[in-house]
Amino acid sequence: MKKKITALLLAMSMALALAACGGGNPGTPSSTGSNPSTPSTGSGTSSAGGDVIKAVYCASMNNESQAFAYKMFQKHEAEFGMKVDVLDDQGDAAKQAENVQQAAAQGYQWIIANPCDAAGLVTAYKAIKENNPDVLLSTYSADITEEAYRDFFVGINDTEAGITAANAFIEKFPNGCKMVEIGGQAGHNAQILRHDGFMSVMKDHPEFEILDCQNTEHWASDEAQAIAEDFVTKYGDDIEAVFCHWDNGATGIINALQAQGMNDVLIVAVDGCRAGFDQVSDGTQYATIMNNFETDSVDSMTLAVKALKGEEVPSTNFIKMDIVTLDNINDFTAPEW
Amino acid sequence: MKKTQKIDSQTVIRFIMDHMLVVILIALAIITAMVEPKFLKVSNLTNIMRQFGALSFVALGLTFAIICGFIDLSIPGMLNICAVMSVILVNPLGQVGALIMTLIFGLFAGFLNGALITRSGGTTQAEGLFITFGMSQVWSAAAMLISDGKTQQLRWCDRPYTIFKFMGSYNVFGVIPIAMVLFVAVMLILNFYHKRTYSGRCMSLAGGNKTAANLAGIHVNVTIMRTLAIGGMMTAMGALMLVSRVTNASPTVGLGYDNDAILSVVVGGTSLAGGKGNVLGTMLGVLLVTLLSNCMNLLGVSNHMQYVMKGAVLIFAIWADNRKNLHSN
Question: Are residues A150 and A298 in the same domain?
């Protein structure tokens, strides 16, 4: 009898877990992608005047900003007469290349990819352009190296994010300072571009001494905190400022600094997520460079509808990044993610 | 005379091989301290102990799983769901309720791994590997679902979370993080369980040879479920330590912890073939992994080179383990 009860409990929990995973929660990615869900051919017409546009978002659902971006696509898909599915690459560039090619073969009209590896996606996009020229290809958030192989790009300029952060430090420390940089996931496109943008400005400002720079293995707060703790050990009070590539990483850095009583260190991070807003509000973070994913998604869909109607659309579309500080934080709507 | 000398040198080599981990740790500490004297600062030693937190508990649980003959790859997914759950449950259940529910969930999830392995008949190491990997995917997706893909911050909780703060930042005598004290206490209990109790010893026997264990009257399936349940609970404990330390829980926080935990366990002397190993060795393994990152950061070694170092240490540990087995055979 005990065994039966245990088996029943296990079966129920498994069913619950599976049901939960298969649910249609708008904020949630579908399962990893070798088998994308069949797009709805649903009722109604698209903005392009035909059936519902079949689109697929190829990105890493283990990255919360990308998962949130998908949620924004889902939020607005009906307005644009679309059905946006997702193919999860889990941060694997090879899998992403495979996913986009599979999506083209399955008849998606629009493929949106957030490149894991800019160069890696080019080959897949090139193959699609050669074999399925009617498929609309775009990049999101980060761009690929060969613009000729995609129809348009919408997103932030990660290089610009690094430049904006550097300028925020220059404005705050006109005479320079000693600082460290804690980067995002090593080798990730955003990490590379944010670092490059930051250094492109800082190389012309010798009054700033970059004491050290280290990247994390993943976009993980605990890894950022561990690096910050090691930097505090090594450089101690010499650290006057920290550039962190993402707001949730800054949370870990703030913990590390506060544990050593270093409350005056100036922190600038990128993303403009809710944690970043909170940290700017309570004064533990000086500024967050904000990326608005809702705008990104809506702009992408607007351009896709136009392109599918045969209209010309601009090739590169950067979304403006805002510097959110305590002085202007009330001018912005606090983000949901 | 010559023969005696040969035996002596072999003994020395054997001794070094048997205590290679301690030798590496001491060498690493000496080299780092010479290049960067701040390595020996009390605050750095406290940092190292604090960084022990999550990985140490996860590795403890994995030690038992590997001794029992399974490499539990559900660790990332379980860390993801347990971490997110612990924060989300603070509002409805309060912090004590959240902590208890997370631990119970970890226990249950580990038990479920064991039940799936035994009920599906997939009791070889490879089958267990894939079943636990599958469960990791399930728990990761569930973590995404319940968190809506967002990092959950403790500061967003309406109810107090002082226990989390205490576990994440309190230092005994101002130096030893409470997480370290908890870890040592749990490790000693588990070591006692493993070495001094019947069911603890069953793990080694079942891991060494399941058929022989069955013939000896050991209920292998129950042993597997019990072992993986302990592993699940330790993973949940690790998630709580992680959340306490960083004050937030990302639905992807567990990424990479399986690699580091396997590295710690194997380097600590637990045989991947199962049947042999101990939690004290795992503690040294965790110390090595944590020290490696700390030393490399202090020495300014890039993240990519840190990967190389960890990989090299893992390969060396497996080589040393196989070599030791050859000698003993």
Answer: yes
* Helices and strands per DSSP (H, E), number in chain A: 10, 12
Which one-letter amino acid corresponds to residue A123? Answer: T
Q: Strand pairing of A287-290 and A322-325?
A: antiparallel
Are B86 and B66 spatial neighbours (Cβ–Cβ below 8 Å)? Answer: no
Domain count, chain B: 1
The answer, for B37 touching chain A at a CB cutoff of 8 Å, is no
pLDDT, tens digit, 9 for 90 and up, residues A246-301: 999 999 999 999 998 999 999 999 988 889 999 999 999 999 998 878 888 999 99
Q: Do A274 and B149 touch (CB under 8 A)?
A: no
For A181, phi then psi, to 5°, come to -120, 130
| Nearest beta carbon to residue A230 from set B153, B250, B298 | B298
How confident is the model at residue A145, as a pLDDT?
Answer: 75
Q: Is A212 on the interface with B (CB under 8 A)?
A: yes
Confirm whether A113 is domain-assigned.
yes
Residue B17 belongs to some domain of the structure:
no
Residue A173 located in a structural domain: yes
Q: How far apart are CA B286 and CA B265, in angstroms?
A: 8
Based on the domain organization, do A117 and A197 belong to the same domain?
no
Host domain of residue A220: 158-290
Chain A residue closest in CA terms to B171: A259
Same domain, A251 and A138: no
B176: three-class secondary structure by DSSP: strand
A214 and A261, same domain (yes or no): yes
The CATH number of residue A247's host domain is 3.40.50.2300
What confidence category does residue A9 fall into, taking pLDDT thresholds of 50, 70 and 90?
low
Which of A113, A125, A121, A120 has the alpha carbon at shortest distance from A57? A113
Rounded to 5°, the CA angle B50-B188-B265 comes to 65
Judged by DSSP in three states, B148 sits in coil
Residue A21 lies in a domain: no
Separation of CA A334 from chain center: 17
In B125-256, DSSP assigns E strands to 152-153, 171-172, 176-177, 248-249
Partner residue opposite B144 with nearest CB, options A61, A234, A260: A61
For the CA atoms of A44, A46, A48, A53, the dihedral, rounded to the nearest 10 degrees, stands at -120
Neighbours of B272 (CB within 10 A): 17
pLDDT for A16 equals 47
Interface confidence (ipTM) of the complex: 0.83
Report CA-CA distances (Å) from B30 to A226, B3, B36: 21, 35, 10
Q: Are residues A150 and A44 in the same domain?
A: yes
* 8 A C-beta contact, residue A334 and residue A277: yes
Q: Per-residue pLDDT for A40 more than 60?
A: no
Query: Could you tell me if residue B174 is inside a domain?
Result: yes
CA nearest to B288, candidates B25, B23, B62, B35: B25
First and final C-alpha spacing in chain B: 27
By the 10 Å C-beta count (0-12 exposed, 13-18 middle, 19+ buried), A288 is classed as buried
**Whose structure tokens read 């990819």?**
A113
Q: Tell me if chain B has a CB within 8 Å of the CB of A76.
A: no
CB contact at 8 A, A150 and A138: yes
CATH number, residue B247: 1.10.3470
Same-domain pairing of A63 and A173: no
Residue B223 is assigned to a structural domain of this protein: yes
Give the domain range for residue B282.
40-317
Residue A157 Cα, gap to closest chain B Cα (Å): 23
pLDDT at res. A229:
93
pLDDT tens track for B250-271 = 888 998 899 899 989 988 888 8
Q: Is residue A43 part of a domain?
A: yes
- The separation between CA B223 and the C-alpha centre of its own chain, rounded to angstroms, equals 19
